[in-house]
TrEMBL record:
Subcellular location: Cell membrane
Domain Bacterial sugar transferase: 16-206
InterPro entries: Bact_transf
A Pfam family hit: Bac_transf
Organism: Microvirga alba
Main subcellular location: membrane
Family: Belongs to the bacterial sugar transferase family.
Any GO BP: polysaccharide biosynthetic process
Keywords: Cell membrane, Exopolysaccharide synthesis, Membrane, Transferase, Transmembrane, Transmembrane helix
Ranges annotated as spanning the membrane: 21-44
One Gene Ontology cellular component annotation held by this UniProt entry: plasma membrane
Domain of life: Bacteria
UniProt-recorded Gene Ontology molecular function terms: phosphotransferase activity, for other substituted phosphate groups
Protein name in the entry: Sugar transferase
Length: 212
């Protein structure tokens, strides 16, 4: 019986990968005109169109998480200067790794973040096998400390473009709650859960609840 359950679970994970590839390829094909339009707006300031940020994937292997660039050039220097003049913002950054007002974000970038269009290039990460359509939010190496004993669980699966955190209010949800949601997702994973999250994602994106 145990071997049967193990076999079914393995089959489910293979099915998940097949679904990931199929939907990601279809979405890239259908969304290609939109990708071109977004790329043109991002390129207007003369900077690069895409941005790759190191995130931790399955097995603890880092990968370049692809997004449309939403920040100004020399963004890190801008952040350091801003935090040096705003102690309350430094505390917020240390706690959440995000800012309610982020001086680095461009006008176009702010719209892309609020609409989640900046994350469309992550479909390439899905096809490559770095990510899944559904999974824990991809985190940086420095953020892993926040996961405590749940780190092995986080590393046991591919991070996702969407997940329970995204449909639960995104930035309205505190980091501790986000970690707990990711832990619950991995422990209770099923294809049915993924389908439930995928079906709720469009409404969450359109509502822009918790988007920054």
């Amino acid at each position: 019986m145990a071997s049967l359950r193990s076999g079914l679970r393995r089959l489910s994970r293979l099915s998940k990968r097949g679904i990931d590839i199929g939907i990601a390829c279809l979405a890239l094909f259908l969304g290609f005109p939109l990708l071109i339009v977004v790329a043109a707006f991002v390129a207007m300031d003369g900077g690069p169109i895409l941005y790759r940020h190191k995130r931790i994937g399955a097995g603890g292997i880092s990968f370049g998480c692809i997004k449309f660039r939403t920040m100004i050039l020399d963004a890190e220097q801008c952040l350091e200067e801003y935090l040096s003049y705003h102690p309350e913002a430094r505390i917020e950054w240390a706690r959440e790794r995000k800012l309610a007002f982020d001086p680095r974000v461009t006008a176009v970038g702010r719209f892309l973040r609020q609409s989640s269009l900046d994350e469309l290039p992550q479909l390439i990460n899905v096809i490559k096998g770095d990510m899944s359509l559904v999974g824990p939010r991809p985190v940086t190496q420095s953020e892993l400390v926040n996961y405590g004993s749940a780190v092995p669980l986080y590393k046991s699966v591919r991070p996702g473009i969407t997940g329970i955190w995204q449909i639960s209010g995104r930035n309205e949800v505190g980091y501790e709650t986000r970690v707990r949601l990711d832990e619950q997702y991995v422990k209770g994973w099923s294809l049915g859960l993924d389908l439930w999250i995928l079906l709720r994602t469009p409404a969450a994106v359109l509502s822009r609840r918790g988007a920054k």
